[in-house]
Amino acid sequence: MTDATAKRRGRPPRTESADTRDRILSAAREEFSERGYEKTSVRGIAKAAGVDPALVHHYFGTKEQVFESAIEVAFAPALTARDAVTEGPLDGVGERLTRFFFGIWENPASRTPLLAIVRSALNNETAAAVFRRLVASQVLRRVAAELDLPDAELRAELAAAQLVGTAMLRYVIKVEPLASADAEQIIRRIAPVVQGHLTGP
Description:
This protein is mainly α. Helices cover about 80% and strands about 0% of the residues. It has eleven helices and no strands. It has helices spanning about 5-10, 15-40, 40-50, 55-60, 65-75, 80-85, 95-105, 110-125, 125-145, 150-170, 185-200. Helix 7 (about 95-105) packs across helix 11. It is globular, with a radius of gyration of 20 Å. About 30% of the residues are buried.
């Protein structure tokens, strides 16, 4: 084995590690977006990233773990949802959270990876389990912790169901007239319902 071969098969220098990891994640997001969870492979991700498949396993482990890491990066804007709960009075939390949620979906840069995540979760139980775990631990429990109300987790889940269900019909299934309705009109109609779930009796 030559020195060059040994270097390719070994761990990359620390100075290259962050760049390689980011390149793999970027390739993974594109692969999952284009192919969905089932048709995406670690080998395909590695090829798109220009690395050996062993490096994908080294940094992330299994395909499921690669998917979860890709979701965490793409889902990062949603992790600040708790701020929408805490940055004002409780009687306005429904509108703030609804406006925040649709702000993410209306932005093409954040909508594309979210669509990939949702489509993968709809078509594959492994992807769905990863999605549920991330949403529950990173978003819903954080929002529930700020409510300080009875059944806070159930309230947060019902609010999320209202928002995600609307997003599914508008952005994924594209049911009309919802798909082409003005976002402000949707926010005005949905926000009071979300408010009711979070703080109602």
